[in-house]
Amino acid sequence: MKASIFLEEVKKIGIHTITGVPDSTLKQFCDAVCLDRGKEWKHYVTANEGAAVGLATGGYLATGCPSLVYLQNSGLGNIINPLASIANEEVYGIPMLFVVGWRGEPGVKDEPQHVYQGKVTCELLEVMNVPYSVIDEMTLETQLQEIFVKAHRQLEKNGQYAIVVKKGTFEKECSFTWENGYKLIREEALRTILKELYCDSYIVSTTGKISRELYEQSDALYGNHDRLFMTVGGMGHASMIAFGMAQADQNRHIVCIDGDGAVMMHMGALAFLAKQSPRNLLHIVINNAAHESVGAMPTGFSGQTYSQIAKASGYSNTYLVQTESELERALKDARSKEELSMIEVMTSLDSRADLGRPKESAEENRIHFMKSYHKVK
Ligand SMILES: Cc1ncc(C[n+]2csc(CCOP(=O)(O)OP(=O)(O)O)c2C)c(N)n1
User: Fold this and answer.
1) What is the pLDDT of residues 236-282, one digit of tens each?
2) Count of alpha carbons within 13 Å of 308, Cβ hemisphere only?
3) Longest C-alpha distance within the chain, in Å?
4) So what's the pLDDT on residue 376?
């Protein structure tokens, strides 16, 4: 299906605002919205999916028009609270259309973080009182029109409706590409970080390609990845996992390797970490100004730097680096200081087409990580 045809239907039911967090299943849809050749949409990439529900609520209060909120099904967790306690018909009754990318659909092989989430996706919508239809590459235009008739009816009753999108539904029609102007390649920066820190630290890494690149690079450099805990799901929570470890044993050095989109998703963690100021935690943010792992859509960030925000929040040391040698210097300096530090590394949008995925299950990764952590105690 062409995203442009889908968007025509969206327009017909009186939606002018599109907001959400990108997803690889919705890549073609997101590209079409970003390109917006007809300048038809108000489009906002929010910090997290719950924030998009907030935006849609305000938009409705001001205009009487519903908005479209797009998300990967992992974002359902982030929307549940505002959906149940603001938008639901038993509360304010705020109409909105959800477009949900379905990762982990039962019977379709997918990554471990998507399996359970995929299984409960439709049940979650049912329990949240959101009627839905599922579309895939076989869905005909006439069937889509019928779905939009149902959605429109539901929105007119001040309810919500969801269109659940299976993998491969949207065909490639146009491609939104851009450059952020930075030269350092993320995977090379990660290799430098591992060389400097892997042997005497434990690493908690964020969702997406950062973890996949760290996995391959630690294997290439050290023949194992036992000191790496990959936060494959729970986007935005890696720094709190790292803090949980750091506070439990102050004699261990913990490194969180985060992405800019992930930091933004739960940015309150920065203020919390600054207040706690663990001396044994180094927070590294790989900033490419995009959700690169799911198609490189720019984040909604203002252009201030995360290191500025960390500094203002109360981190003891912050560094902003753009080159390999600046990164090496910052790593050495931060490691010598034993105070809560953030190193923000500006990187390009490049990644390898042949990048692999972890070979063992998430549970096996957790077991190996804990064994390596407890063995040397
Ligand atoms: C709650 C939630 N929403 C959306 C996603 C889909 N997702 C996976 S990785 C990713 C992008 C991460 O961006 P960033 O942290 O900047 O790292 P980058 O991919 O740019 O290295 C997104 C949006 C997700 N996993 N979880």
Assistant:
1) 999 999 999 999 999 999 999 999 999 999 999 999 999 999 999 99
2) 5
3) 64
4) 57
CB 243 within 8 A of CB 278: yes
Is 231 touching ligand 1 by the criterion CB < 6 Å?
no
Does the Cβ of 187 fall within 6 Å of ligand 1? no
From 305, 324, 195, select the one nearest 255 (Cα to Cα): 195
Structure tokens at 171: 């065909």
Phi/psi region, residue 191 (left: phi>0; alpha: psi -120 to 50; beta: rest), is alpha
pLDDT digit string (tens) for 37-79?
A: 778 999 999 999 999 999 999 999 999 999 999 999 999 999 9
Candidates 69, 66, 91; CA nearest to 78 is 69
The continuous run of DSSP H or E covering 363 comes out as helix 362-375
Q: Which residue from 264, 276, 289 is spatially nearest to 182, judged by alpha carbons?
A: 289
Please give the Cα distance from 87 to 57 (Å, whole number). Answer: 7
Atom of ligand 1 nearest to the CA of 287: 16
Q: DSSP strand E in 22-106: where?
A: 42-45, 67-72, 96-102
Pocket test for ligand 1, best of 78, 293, 351, 352 (most atoms within 8 A of CB): 293
Written out in words, the top-level CATH class of the domain with range 3-166 is: alpha beta
Give yes or no for residue 30 CB within 6 A of ligand 1.
Answer: no
Q: Let me know if the fold of 3-166 is the same as that of 186-375.
A: yes
Distance between Cα 246 and ligand 1 center (Å):
24
Instruction: Fold for 186-375, please state it.
Output: Rossmann fold (3.40.50)
**Spans of all domains in the chain:** 3-166, 186-375
Residue nearest atom 12 in ligand 1 by C-alpha distance:
291
Q: Which residues are CB-contacts of 166 (< 8 A; sequence separation ≥ 6)?
A: 25, 102, 105, 108, 134, 135, 136, 137
Give me ligand 1 centre to Cα 329, in Å: 28
